[in-house]
TrEMBL record:
Keywords: Metal-binding, mRNA processing, Nucleus, Repeat, RNA-binding, Zinc, Zinc-finger. It is found in: Nucleus. Residues 272-287 form the CCHC-type domain. This is Cleavage and polyadenylation specificity factor subunit 4. The lineage of its organism: Eukaryota, Metazoa, Ecdysozoa, Arthropoda, Hexapoda. A zinc finger (C3H1-type) spans 35-61, 62-89, 90-117, 118-145, 147-169. The keyword Repeat applies.
Length: 315
């Protein structure tokens, strides 16, 4: 009765218009500020927001389908540049880590999604067509269904609501993996676990860490075998070089071997820098660490001149 007597459908307050048009909304002092608690900008989805990065409201893109787990704890620093959704939506929550790994979650109020592992496995398109060469080892699901005879004859009156199977004889369309410039086929990576493009199974985030480690070991085993063989060949080659070097050093009088140093000087021409005498090296000086005293006694004039020069410099 109130809607008939006093209808307010055509009444609009000025405050509602001000909120929709964002009157009085001041731009941010600098871009990159936290806007996690701000309202959603109504002009950004329409492409009419003129404030850009200085807009005080949140800019949400439509391609974000998963809620940011860091934003739920207030730790996301990317703001509008985050590739995940900054909005509390139960249908778009990320998958529960404990349920996906241990198939059990003891938190009765867990906000994350509990997805059945069996539902992640896709139906095998080759088995649906009639034959799959992988048999029971196929990574896809093999489901035996009863064929609809009406559909096989050409027409089924029940259509998609038929309780029998309507087979599809075409395979999934391959992706466009041809380079337009070079007309060469690009290598498309397909994960064998989640059947998604763009990564290998050893990097799949939907696998447990143990499964990723096992997959990485299987894929890297041929590389390790090749690396081990190359290491053995390299060691054999280095041993030959060292043997040749030692032979050269032995021919020049060096009994230690290792690195080619060339022929040594005769000991008569070698001068010890500790005592100043000839006939031995400094590391084999018979006068030890006090050899500089004997050097000063041999040249007292030079020693006195050096001391006078030092005293003059000090004055």
């Amino acid at each position: 009765m109130e809607l008939i007597v006093a209808s307010v459908e055509g009444v609009k307050f000025d405050i509602e218009t001000a909120l929709e048009e964002q009157y009085g909304a001041l731009p941010l002092p600098f871009p990159g500020m936290d806007k996690s608690i701000a309202a959603v900008c109504t002009f950004y989805p329409k492409g009419t927001c003129l404030k850009g990065a200085a807009c005080p409201f949140r800019h949400i893109r439509g391609d974000r389908t998963i809620v940011c787990k860091h934003w739920l704890r207030g730790l996301c620093k990317k703001g509008d540049q985050c590739e995940f959704l900054h909005e509390y939506d139960m249908s778009k929550m990320p998958e529960c880590y404990f349920y996906s790994r241990f198939n059990a979650c003891h938190n009765k109020e867990c906000p994350f999604l509990h997805i059945d592992p069996e539902s992640k496995i896709r139906d095998c398109p080759w088995y649906d067509r009639g034959f799959c060469r992988h048999g029971p080892h196929c990574r896809h699901r093999h489901v035996r269904r009863v064929l609809c005879m009406n559909y096989l004859a050409g027409f089924c009156p029940d259509g998609p609501e038929c309780k029998f199977m309507h087979p599809r004889f075409e395979l999934p369309a391959p992706t466009d993996n041809t380079n337009q410039n070079t007309n060469k086929v690009k290598a498309v990576l397909v994960c064998h676990y989640c059947n998604e493009y763009g990564h290998k199974a050893m990097y799949c985030l939907k696998m447990t860490p143990e499964q990723r480690a096992e997959q990485a070991r299987i894929e890297n085993e041929p590389f390790f075998k090749k690396f081990t063989m190359q290491t053995k060949i390299g060691k054999m080659y280095m041993s030959q070089i060292i043997a040749q070097t030692r032979n050269v050093d032995g021919a020049n009088g060096d009994k230690k071997g290792g690195i080619f140093r060339g022929p040594h000087k005769p000991l008569d021409e070698v001068t010890c820098y500790k005592c100043g005498l000839k006939g031995h090296y400094a590391n084999r000086c018979p006068k030890g660490h006090l050899a500089f005293l004997s050097k000063a006694q041999q040249n007292p004039s030079s020693f006195s001149n050096n001391s006078e020069n030092q005293s003059n410099n000090a004055n």
